[in-house]
Amino acid sequence: MKYFLTFALFISTLSLSAQNTNVDVESAIDDIIKQLTLEEKVKMCHAQSKFSSPGVERLGIPEIWMSDGPHGVRAEIEWDSWNHAGWTNDSCTAFPALTCLASTFNPELAYKYGVAVGEEARYRKKDILLGPGVNIYRTPLNGRNFEYMGEDPYLASIMCVPYIQGVQTNGVAACVKHYVLNNQEVWRAHIDVNVSDRALHEIYLPAFKAAVQEGGVWSIMGAYNKYNGQHTSHHKVLMNDILKSDWEFDGVVVTDWGSAHDTKEAALYGLDIEMGTGTDGLTSSTENAYDHYYLAKPFLEMIKSGEIDESVVDDKVRRILRLMYRTNMDKSRPFGRKANEEHFAVAREVAQEGIVLLKNNKNFFPLNPDTKQTIAVIGENATRMMTVGGGSSELKTVHEISPLQGLQERFVNANIIHSMGYASGPSQYGRVIPSELDADSLKQAAVKVAQQADIVLFVGGLNKNHEQDCENGDREGLNLPFGQDELLSELMAVNKNVAVILVSGNAVAMPWQSKAKAIVQAWYLGSETGYALADVLSGDINPSGKLPFTFPVSLEDNGAHAFDELSYPGDGEKQVYKEDILVGYRWHDTKKIKPLYAFGYGLSYTSFKINEATTDKTVYGADDEIKLTVQISNVGDVDGAEVIQVYVHDENSSVMRPVKELKAFKKVNLNAEESKQVEITVPVNTFAFYDETKGDWNLEKGSYQLMIGTASNQIKKTIKLSVD
Ligand code: BGC
Q: Phi-psi bin for 163: left (phi > 0), alpha (psi -120 to 50), beta?
């Protein structure tokens, strides 16, 4: 009783900041730790169910409830199985996938997205939302690229920070994942990644670092894979040295579900909460399974025997309580709300801005909304639900407007006919059930429909089946699956007006590219899919999305695939990232391999012109910020938005450097015929490379170029400057 009163007193009298650690909170935590038994402390370090960790009933310390993430709040899962719990109050807004968010190149939208998804998490009584994912897009085969923010560490950093801040305004912790080097799903549980320190620091770590240092993220999830022989979820270098020491992360490290493998390592190498360990496999557990977790009984015994010092568990509990004071012990946190008009509006806005127009021959799009033409909408993805499947990011949404429905509602005067064209089979986590429909009949029916139509809108791409855009497996190749390439070539043979709308989170090969009248990259757009798509295709919205990763012509053109299988997918045990720092456009530029569509590329219904770009000086010191002024005009007759992209080229480095690296960008709205002067700040210290000989960043004196453009392969102005 005495303890309870003391604790209750602390909770009620403290004025808590939702963002920061403060002195009062730290001393309250000291006091709580003194009151906890060793057993209670250990208990707080591991799961009690699939998605929660226990509190301390005796003292009124709450449980922590978690949920996936990152595109909405996942439906309730049973206490101790992966089955859906069957609640009827857990439908959510499905927001567009993070690849789409990244394509907006609009950090303000990322904040709105974060606030909205955080509100839904809060309403659903979640304390930790498991996202965002910021693993770098290394290969187009990775089944989970759709959950991440593309191939460029700067873009991923700039976009994840406001998402995190937005989520956390709700008193809900974001949990940035999967730290780190989880760049493929094949063999993800054990593959041992070997990568240079330079690539680690320049390519794979920056978004996590930004999440911690700029975003102030309250939790981080380890990954499944190994790095240099040790599992990443309890890793001396990654967790202790880099994350907790160098970056001064004061939050909680959570395992990925089932990524803990050893009690002593978990205890000593930075893991705070162990989740998802199956005592006999990830999907089934024995009774009292949670007591057998690495950070449960075995941990307790090691502390009792003196093998591990009690201060180790105290540090974990301190971090967990700190997260609680920021979330479920912050009495001032808002209540949240879900699946309301505002959230659907945010989802639609992100979708509209993220859609990328890749090709638009003779202004094929926009289609006149009043058209009376016959439009054949062909392809399974015109009607397939994409919030279902894909693994842990699956969602149970209040509604998902299909592309077909969106088109039907916008083009009311058109004669819209739909034909499936191909069938992929139903989606079931972990396995594909082949379709029973006859592929040839589907194809023939679609060709017939295409023959009768004025135009064909082919809505295809990938889906959320295993070995498509889905967790726990990678794609088998770059081409479109389910016979779509052949189908497209037959459709194009009978109809000259075929536009291709790709629903995917990954690049695909396009053998039919030259014959398509238009190509649209439409991602996974969530609840408002069909509306957002119709907004763009009708011209209600002028597209402004830019690719967050390169589309190679063929798989071998991608850096990870330019080497032997040790580079991808590895030999079953280990893997070497042989392209090193040359990921994505860094590889294409440096090796002079033309992409099919470049990083940063995307068309508009209008045209923009960068007229002039100037800097405030020509010689800069290491701590300076370059003040870049860009004059840009919309030279067309519709309003639109362009992304000014600023890349840096090092002219005389002592080490190999990519031809260019993105260091700043700004999305600018311009009315028809409007011109604007845009100020962009570029900190000079971001020109540094990671110097392996020093184990630190190194900014060399010398000549650099700022390359200013509208895509990584469309540089319009170059400015020379030097760093002294
Ligand atoms: C995924 C995580 C996810 C977790 C919980 C894991 O399999 O890798 O991203 O948050 O499951 O569902």
A: alpha
